[in-house]
């Protein structure tokens, strides 16, 4: 198996839309009380033997940090997620960023395990942020997942310096 990670290009637009839509049902995400289209963001694509294996999108904030906005493993078990995290971390460090960070929700125990095993630390809990977002911006956010009410945004970060 040959896994390659490369930046997303304009030619990847349809693929990015397809991957995000398959994973989330939409390309429009809601976090921090705002809506944004993840397909419009820069990112990295993991390709294994010529087929998409994963996608990561991000945005750069004015505080010297890169926020991972989506991370999808299309073919779990190949190491695409880890390779994508390494790629964004390297690019952020090269650009002088001081940290890479992300938001997940309180129900996403798989993501919490995944990110913590890769050097991310839980740094903030934004209580009822998902509840407010569901009420004001995106009513399609599910109320629960696997029996866990989806209510809070959890912020994780990995320092780069």
Question: What can you tell me about this protein's structure?
Answer:
- The protein has 161 residues and is an alpha+beta fold.
- The chain contains four helices and eleven strands; from the N terminus they run E-H-E-E-E-E-E-H-E-H-E-H-E-E-E.
- It has helices at residues 13-24, 80-94, 109-117, 129-136; strands at residues 3-7, 28-31, 34-37, 43-48, 51-60, 65-73, 99-105, 121-126, 144-145, 148-149, 153-159.
- The strands form three sheets. It has a seven-stranded mixed sheet, sandwiched between helices. A two-stranded antiparallel ribbon has the order 2-3. Strands 9-10 form a two-stranded antiparallel ribbon.
- Strand 5 (51-60) and strand 6 (65-73) form a beta hairpin.
- The longest helix is centred in the middle third of the chain and has 15 residues, at 80-94.
Strand content: 35-45%
Number of strands: 11
Poorly predicted regions are none
Binned, the helix content reads 25-40%
Physical arrangement of strands within the biggest beta sheet? 1-4-5-6-7-11-8
């Amino acid at each position: 198996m040959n896994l390659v990670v490369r930046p997303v290009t304009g030619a990847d637009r349809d693929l990015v839309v397809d991957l995000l839509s398959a994973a989330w049902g939409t390309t429009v995400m809601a976090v921090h009380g705002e809506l944004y289209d993840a397909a419009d963001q820069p990112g990295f694509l993991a390709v294994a033997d010529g087929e998409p294996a994963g996608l990561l999108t991000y945005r750069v904030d004015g505080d010297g940090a890169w926020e991972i906005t989506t991370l999808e493993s299309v073919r779990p078990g190949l190491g695409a997620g880890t390779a994508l995290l390494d790629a964004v971390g390297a690019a952020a460090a090269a650009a002088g960023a001081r940290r890479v960070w992300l938001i997940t929700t309180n129900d996403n125990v798989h993501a919490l395990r995944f990110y913590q095993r890769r050097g991310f630390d839980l740094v903030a809990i934004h209580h009822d942020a998902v509840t407010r977002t569901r009420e004001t911006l995106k009513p399609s956010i599910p109320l629960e997942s696997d029996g866990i009410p989806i209510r809070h945004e959890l912020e994780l970060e990995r320092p780069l310096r």
